[in-house]
Design goal:
The structure is a single chain. The chain is an alpha+beta fold. The protein has two domains: about 100 residues, Orthogonal Bundle (Arc Repressor Mutant, subunit A), CATH 1.10.10; about 120 residues, no CATH class. Helices cover about 35% and strands about 20% of the residues. The protein contains eight helices and eleven strands. Helix 6 runs antiparallel to helix 8 and helix 7 crosses helix 8. The two termini are about 30 Å apart.
């Protein structure tokens, strides 16, 4: 099965995803065959034209085929590039293991959050969470837990409170918070800190005191 990472408005459509897998499994497909296979789908002609115009589908001699390349190498792979990959290929499992170091800055202070982010953005990281909110892509199960706390929060608003709390660990090893809020809960879910006693927290990140880089250990 073909899976797409970092979709856009066209490629996240259920019909598009079903169509490319149909074309992947069948050769010399005609319009009649497409309409027979997807007889309950409306406006097939118009949708096909949009896919062809975008270069995702190719029409030659009244036959249709996929116009994109399936991932066959991890060389030159960049974060957030559109990826089409066969889930039955050997490279699929390798792809899920590729990570990129990302840094999150904010406008409230000089603290920097550093994380190892997987290129498919399925793992729970703050950087991937904010990315999914911007791109409106489907959240993974781990990311859903964070969403249940933060929702579609404004990143700068969240970072203001999260980084302000993290900065307290530059002055003390244990921080007491009498009234934990959603941002404290989010920091725990992300694995940035843990509660060691009621309303008492310790940091689980590495700190560079000079540069104020807080590095996640997840």
């Amino acid at each position: 099965m073909i899976r797409i990472f970092h979709t856009n408005k066209l490629t996240r459509q259920p019909f598009f995803q079903a169509l490319i897998n149909f074309l992947h499994d069948n050769q010399d497909v005609t319009l009649r065959q497409i309409k027979a296979r997807f007889e309950e789908e409306n406006n097939i002609d118009r949708q096909l034209e949009a896919y062809i115009k975008a270069g995702y589908i190719v029409r030659e001699n009244r036959r249709y085929r996929n116009g994109f390349h399936l991932l066959d190498s991890l060389d030159d792979l960049t974060l957030d590039q559109e990826i089409f990959v066969d889930t039955e290929s050997a490279i699929f499992e390798k792809l899920k293991g590729v990570t990129v170091k990302q840094q999150i800055t904010n406008t409230s202070n000089h603290l920097i959050i550093e994380e190892e982010v997987d290129v498919v953005r399925e793992r729970l990281t703050l950087d991937s969470y904010f990315y999914k909110m911007r791109s409106q892509e489907t959240l993974s199960l781990d990311q859903e837990e964070l969403y249940s706390v933060l929702g579609d929060v404004n990143p700068e608003y969240a970072l203001k409170y999260m980084t302000s709390f993290l900065l307290k660990f530059t002055r003390k090893e244990r921080v007491i918070q009498r009234r934990p809020d959603i941002f404290v809960r989010a920091l725990i879910i992300l694995g940035f800190m843990e509660e060691v006693a009621p309303q008492t927290y310790i940091l689980t990140m590495d700190i560079d005191q000079e540069s104020l880089i807080f590095t996640s250990q997840n």
